[in-house]
């Protein structure tokens, strides 16, 4: 049947369906082989819904699902950087792409993709040919690039909003009708697709220019007539890029190979072929719907995974028998281990817990391995138990496997991609296993599941999670190990005695995993766990294993310098006090300041009754002109630097690597920020000269350089985006110094006449507002009267009312829900928001700051997760993360390439989940030390 008048063609943007399905549903795997199928499941549901909804009046006579063939198209020949900023698809999505094509064919819908052409071009070619033939076309997509096709029988249907898009809707979005859309897009550019456009010109301005001059070529030819100097020069300077942009955004409706509309005629699905495919994918629910539609019996689907409950229908956890540690098994030979490995392979998952003989995984020995592949199942494989007297083994315990034999036997299971390894803080186990050449994957982590659901509401320790979610409290380990001077280490227990607590821990992990899995989608945080938490485990494990070099000689010199400074400060303190005393004693210091010297402002501590001499009290006194409190603050700073860094860092050098290996806590802060321990490398002061000197001791080995890449003012940029503050967004887009601009807005000082003091006041307010600063706090920071500080804050909110609205809305959200959310879906609970007094004030400040700080943490996590792929082929390695900064080590020859690749990843890290209205800017540097690089 030839296509013509009276026919109706539906063109479905298949790639959009795939990504929407992937991000909308929790990860699913096929039970038989662990194949990821979550996006395929969502795609099939959407396609079936489309087919069912398309019946009746105005039904399509022809239809096709159109896909992108590959990332590279003819546009890359026009402009090499086209779509260069787009990240690679997630690893678990890649194998699902061909399955969505199979699904389309199983539904008996035409499936189209052409090498070197984007799906949009194929849709454009078909739409134009159908229109020319006199037919009607509906494009099922919300993609703005397809809006240039609308009109003369072609319309769009936004499947998310179920909204029709005609010429008027296109004008509402672009300010021009469809025939001028590409002119506007060429001027405005597109940061997502890396279409250059004209810098500083957005959609609104572009539409005004096109409407004024008629079309793009007329505008460029008459650019010298534009009154605004900056805009005029931009169009003149970037005319070539604008013309290239026009080519990039214009759909190629002519060059695509011949596509016959007649071959796209709609036909009923072949129910046998469709049910065979759904059965193979193990999509039980949809298969039942299809069978019911064709009035068939229920299909036979073997081992189908249960569909995840919807958020509003989360099933309660099943009632399970109580944990019985008496049932656990001690495995002492490979024959006994074999059936357990078989059971794990059949189940496709195992809870795992390594017992190590020390906290440092990079130097620890393996005491044993606990496993649990199901409820009521637990086993322990002892490998490194020792004797200890009192009936225990005298030397190395008999009847246990060697660590090497145990790991060799477990290796296939630990590396099997079809078996999920579940742990509590499993990064620790992954680091130990990596030392022995075992790549632990894939993994799940119940601590991080809890963190995704309950950050700020509770702790995430194993015992706390077990008691709160399983109702199980295990016996304290000290009942087995003893306490005090006679306490044993775990390795000193006999293996059969150690089995009970070790295997019990593994089964607790298993039950928590089963408990948390359905609750993640119900809580709406599956994407947080799957994209921000779980993928970070191997990245951090690799960084921690890499470590960073330090220069002990330089640290020794600094310690000597600090010791001399401390001696000089102590002399000043004693002279000012008129006596010698213990400067480190708050009680003695309080008596001297308030009782003997008569300073005002002392307040008694609620715990001890002693006069408080905290940093805030001393800063207030110093601000009043008292010299002694300031010198005590100086003494405290230098003392901390000496004790915490210049003296202590040398004790953390690993004897095997010669480097310092910090540990990162993924669930260490409620907002998603990482915490660094043993040693803590995230709290090195950088606002003082002495603090900055510490970074001089972190050095690159010969022939290499340290590279620091740091987000510039990321939290202020995110505030501008989230609160939708036009003045701040414009300043960031145009590269204007944000503190100077703020000072100009607040105090009416022209930017070109701004003085440092006025700028610094605006800077203090800019950063203070993010943390909910009060007039009292700002007064202390700026050392000005409180009334003056409050007047500054009042003026700030008058100039930027959007910030006040953001604060009020965020606090209201916290009170309503008990939590606030970042733009990436992270939830930060604020239980104190319901209290009164100081507790509520603190929770209010946290609620205001958390979505901003949390989003910044999410962005750098996304960058870190993408970084290993970005550095493929380089010897460069990522070593450290310090909040908004990443530190790398690379051969000198790779420095420029490393900076280019890493900056690209970091600046595009928010996309495609969030399209920021302000640019992320990353500043970088390299040097022989961290101080030089930063």
From TrEMBL:
Gene3D superfamilies listed in its UniProt record: 3.30.70.370, 5' to 3' exonuclease, C-terminal subdomain (1.10.150.20), 5'-nuclease (3.40.50.1010), Ribonuclease H-like superfamily/Ribonuclease H (3.30.420.10), Taq DNA Polymerase, Chain T, domain 4 (1.20.1060.10)
Reactions catalysed: DNA(n) + a 2'-deoxyribonucleoside 5'-triphosphate = DNA(n+1) + diphosphate
One BP annotation, GO: double-strand break repair
Keyword Transcription: no
Residue ranges of domain DNA-directed DNA polymerase family A palm in the record: 691-894
Sequence ranges assigned to domain 5'-3' exonuclease in this UniProt record: 7-267
Leading EC class: transferase
Annotated ranges, domain 3'-5' exonuclease: 328-521
Pfam family, one: DNA_pol_A_exo1
UniProt xrefs under SUPFAM superfamilies: 5' to 3' exonuclease, C-terminal subdomain (SSF47807), DNA/RNA polymerases (SSF56672), PIN domain-like (SSF88723), Ribonuclease H-like (SSF53098)
UniProt cross-references to InterPro entries, sorted A to Z: 3'-5'_exonuclease_dom, 5-3_exonucl_a-hlix_arch_N, 5-3_exonuclease, 5-3_exonuclease_C_sf, DNA-dir_DNA_pol_A_CS, DNA-dir_DNA_pol_A_palm_dom, DNA/RNA_pol_sf, DNA_polI_H3TH
Keywords carried by this UniProt record: DNA damage, DNA repair, DNA replication, DNA-binding, DNA-directed DNA polymerase, Exonuclease, Hydrolase, Nuclease, Nucleotidyltransferase, Transferase
GO molecular function terms listed in the Swiss-Prot or TrEMBL record: 3'-5' exonuclease activity; 5'-3' exonuclease activity; DNA binding; DNA-directed DNA polymerase activity
Protein EC: 2.7.7.7
SMART domains tied to this protein: 35EXOc (SM00474), 53EXOc (SM00475), HhH2 (SM00279), POLAc (SM00482)
CDD domains recorded: DNA_pol_A_pol_I_C (cd08637), DNA_polA_I_Ecoli_like_exo (cd06139), H3TH_53EXO (cd09898), PIN_53EXO (cd09859)
Keyword Nuclease: yes
Function statement: In addition to polymerase activity, this DNA polymerase exhibits 3'-5' and 5'-3' exonuclease activity.
Family statement: Belongs to the DNA polymerase type-A family.
Subunit structure comment from the entry: Single-chain monomer with multiple functions.
NCBIfam families according to UniProt: pola (TIGR00593), PRK05755.1 (NF004397)
Designated name of the protein: DNA polymerase I
Organism: Paracoccus suum
